[in-house]
């Protein structure tokens, strides 16, 4: 029966065939990785599910080739697929993986080809090298087998077929320019490069000519294991090289760049477990998606359990890739048990401390830490909101842009602090924050202010309390530090009343300010959350704008002249321009730009 591919898969196949071929060798890594996953799944079931316990199961991956026919085959004896699973797994993509992949492309063919495995679209890399692909599969404990056949040109066909044993075999009929992959040396070198630490044996079957004593030739059918097939995390650290760790990371994460760091830890005592964690050098594509995929795999006594448990580490460490292998958990542990398990809770707590300790080590190398912080700094701030136990460590790891520089730690801020407070201002745009009138008094007094423009800032900052004895203070909520004298208040009372009348309905209140230095006025949006407003607008929701407090600077020449202005119409225009200018400095936009423009034009006409 013939089927059509999803539209996105057609786009993907076209891209694979015509654009990403420059690094086409990665197809073998992807197919071997998929075979390993299938073996992991069946291995788990044979140990945890009574229905599968009597299956004769010796997990391995077989690779065969025929140079003359340009044929390469990869076969596993894993869980296998039935007809509906072939459609689901090879004809469609779940969780918008294809769309995300297409959106993430940079135009750099080599970099883009390295994204393939991260998006769950690795199987389709077959079509970079093959003009035809046949997938033959039989699901464990089922009687029927099926073949999936496609040339990658819009359609695929599924037929019932015969297959002696459960598992999946992929036959690649190689293109003329890819016949190099039906070669013993080429296959061996690629397995060594990408798949050496796959935990199951990869067996290469090949023919070898041998000259006999009578000088005639005979063909010997040989087989050879071409990978180490050891769980790398089980190997002692002193037996592993930097290259071993990096190669395993690339296989685990499908990320071709080197990790920034790794932590390999073995714990013995009341609990026995091994962890191997990697800190990537770049963020996974789904880092800020609700349906992000966990980067940590759970094993029990080297048996794969799950790679889909988001509770293995705190959510803010979701960028970490790695392995947890416990000796104490039962093999038939369920998802519900995992969520409430004390053993895992202890492993999670200890692992979090280890990872934060390694991030602290990274912070000693400023260039390396800048790379890390640019990619994952926002997540450390998320941790401040959710991980109270490690709040102090996380605060020390955070870096900030301030009025005195970039990439500033709170320890550095404390060393040069002039008061027992850490001052900050929150907004959606860093350039607007740098030019905010609210900073003027602090700049004049040489007081440093944190400039915060991450989405999470408005949620976490009010809950922080203090850092090493210094209290966090939002400067927009700070009262005017200096008292307004009664004489000045009386002098400006009528002007304030007039201005309030002009701006009726647009402001909550008006008051004289002592916080301003160079600016004639500013607006204070009490109780408003600029980040939340921005998020709600992005979601298409209407946001009712809160009327701000309008503060004016009685020491500014503009305000002094406005106070004495008797032309009511001109005063009205100038007050509106002043108010809208203050709003522009706060948010970068105003609601009625047309009226603002007309008033400016009118004032220009009056002055020329």
User: How many distinct beta strands?
Assistant: 23
Mean pLDDT: 88
* CATH-assigned homologous superfamily of the largest domain: Histidine kinase-like ATPase, C-terminal domain
Please estimate the helix content.
Answer: 25-40%
- Beta content comes to 15-25%
Radius of gyration: 32 Å
The helix-and-strand class reads: alpha+beta
Sketch the major β-sheet: 9 strands, mixed
Number of domains: 4
| H/I helix tally | 20
CATH topology of the largest domain: Heat Shock Protein 90
Strand order of the largest sheet: 1-6-5-4-7-3-2-8-9
Walkthrough of the structure:
- The protein is an alpha+beta fold and 608 residues long.
- It has four domains: 224 residues, Histidine kinase-like ATPase, C-terminal domain (Heat Shock Protein 90, 2-Layer Sandwich); 145 residues, Ribosomal Protein S5, domain 2, CATH 3.30.230; 76 residues, Rossmann fold, CATH 3.40.50.11260; 122 residues, Up-down Bundle (Four Helix Bundle (Hemerythrin (Met), subunit A)).
- It is built from 20 helices and 23 strands.
- It is elongated and about 120 Å long.
- The N and C termini lie far apart (81 Å).
- The model has no long low-confidence stretch (mean pLDDT 88).
Keyword list:
alpha+beta, Heat Shock Protein 90, Ribosomal Protein S5, domain 2, Rossmann fold, 6-stranded mixed sheet, 37% helix, 21% strand
Concise description?
By secondary structure, this protein is an alpha+beta fold. It contains 20 helices and 23 strands. The strands form four sheets. The protein has a nine-stranded mixed beta sheet with strand order 1-6-5-4-7-3-2-8-9, covered by helices on one side.
């Amino acid at each position: 029966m013939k089927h059509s591919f999803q539209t996105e898969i057609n786009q993907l196949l076209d891209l694979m065939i015509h654009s990403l071929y420059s690094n086409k060798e990665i197809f073998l890594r992807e197919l071997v990785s998929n075979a390993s996953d299938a073996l992991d799944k069946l291995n788990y079931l044979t140990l945890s599910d009574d229905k599968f316990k009597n299956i004769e199961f010796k997990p391995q991956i077989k690779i065969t080739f025929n140079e003359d026919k340009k044929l390469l085959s990869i076969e596993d004896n894993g869980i296998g697929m039935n007809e509906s699973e072939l459609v689901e797994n090879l004809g469609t993509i779940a969780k918008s993986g294809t769309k995300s992949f297409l959106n993430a492309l940079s135009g750099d063919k080599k970099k883009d080809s390295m994204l393939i495995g991260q998006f769950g679209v690795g199987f389709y890399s077959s079509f970079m090298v093959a003009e035809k692909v046949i997938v033959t599969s039989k699901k464990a404990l089922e009687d029927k087998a099926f073949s999936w056949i496609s040339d990658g040109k819009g359609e695929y066909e599924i037929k019932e077929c015969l297959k002696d044993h459960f598992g999946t075999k992929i036959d690649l009929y190689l293109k003329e320019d890819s016949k190099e992959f039906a070669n013993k040396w080429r296959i061996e070198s690629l397995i060594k490069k990408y798949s050496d630490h796959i935990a199951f044996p990869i067996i290469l079957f090949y023919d070898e000519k041998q000259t006999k004593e009578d000088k005639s030739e005979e063909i010997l059918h040989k087989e050879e294991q071409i990978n180490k097939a050891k769980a790398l995390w089980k190997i002692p650290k002193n037996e592993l090289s930097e290259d071993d760790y990096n190669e395993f990371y690339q296989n685990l994460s499908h990320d071709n760049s080197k990790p920034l760091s790794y932590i390999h830890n073995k714990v013995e005592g009341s609990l026995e477990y091994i962890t191997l964690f990697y800190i990537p050098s770049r963020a996974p594509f789904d880092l800020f998606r609700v349906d992000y995929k966990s980067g940590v795999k759970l094993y029990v006594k080297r048996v794969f359990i799950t790679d889909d448990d988001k509770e293995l580490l705190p959510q803010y460490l979701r960028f970490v890739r790695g392995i947890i292998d416990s000796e104490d958990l039962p093999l038939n542990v369920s998802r519900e048990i995992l969520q409430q398990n004390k053993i895992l809770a202890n492993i999670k707590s200890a692992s979090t401390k280890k990872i934060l300790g390694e991030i602290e080590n990274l912070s000693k190398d400023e260039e390396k830490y800048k790379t890390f912080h640019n990619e994952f700094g926002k997540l450390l701030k998320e941790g401040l909101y959710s991980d109270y136990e490690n709040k102090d460590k996380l605060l020390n790891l955070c870096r900030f842009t301030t009025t005195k520089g970039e990439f500033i730690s709170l320890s550095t801020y404390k060393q040069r602090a002039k008061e027992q407070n850490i001052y900050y201002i929150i907004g959606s745009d860093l350039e607007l924050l740098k030019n905010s009138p609210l900073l003027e008094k602090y700049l004049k007094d040489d007081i440093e202010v944190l400039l915060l423009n991450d989405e999470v800032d408005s949620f976490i900052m009010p809950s922080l309390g203090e850092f090493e004895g210094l209290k966090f203070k939002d400067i927009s909520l700070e009262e005017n530090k200096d008292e307004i004298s009664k004489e000045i208040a009386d002098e400006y009372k009528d002007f304030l009343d007039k201005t309030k009348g002009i701006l009726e309905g647009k402001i909550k209140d008006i008051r004289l300010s002592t916080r301003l230095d160079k600016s004639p006025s500013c607006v204070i949006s009490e109780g408003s959350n600029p980040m939340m407003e921005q998020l709600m607008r992005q979601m298409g929701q209407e946001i009712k704008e809160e009327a701000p407090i309008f503060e004016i600077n009685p020491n500014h020449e503009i305000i002094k002249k406005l106070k004495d202005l008797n032309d009511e119409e001109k005063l009205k225009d100038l007050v509106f321009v002043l108010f809208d200018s203050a709003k522009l400095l706060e948010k970068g936009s105003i609601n009625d730009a047309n009226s603002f423009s007309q008033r400016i034009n009118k004032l220009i006409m009056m002055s020329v």
